[in-house]
Sequence to fold (134 residues):
Amino acid sequence: MKTDTRNKTGNGNTATAALAKINAQIEALNQQRIGLAQPLKDRYAEMRGELSALETEIRSLDAGWKPAPLKPRADDKIRELITEHGKPMSADEIVKAVGGVFTPWKVKNTLKKKSTGAKAVFTVNDGKFSIKAA
Fold:
């Protein structure tokens, strides 16, 4: 005797059709998203060309000029924080002040390069942060 495993409700193709319809809608939305990105890509290319031309012009006037990096550096952020604070800061204070810009590990690792111990206090001298002289 054979067991009958057919769907007896009579709507076996409904789920497949619904899934195909949803997949078609997803594909249509992806194509729409790609279409919306195109003007942004065009504007980006245009701005990049303008910046390149501007950089060339600046370099012709001042050969020693370097553009500021687009990616933030932990050293720069720490120096900025200590300068704003106006007085020396401990490593824990710096980690709290940096917040979500960098991970606590990144900040501590950056400070460790200049530090002599866990209780080190940092200050800014001549545009660079360093350990406060005792």
Q: What stands out?
A: Residues 74-131 form one domain.
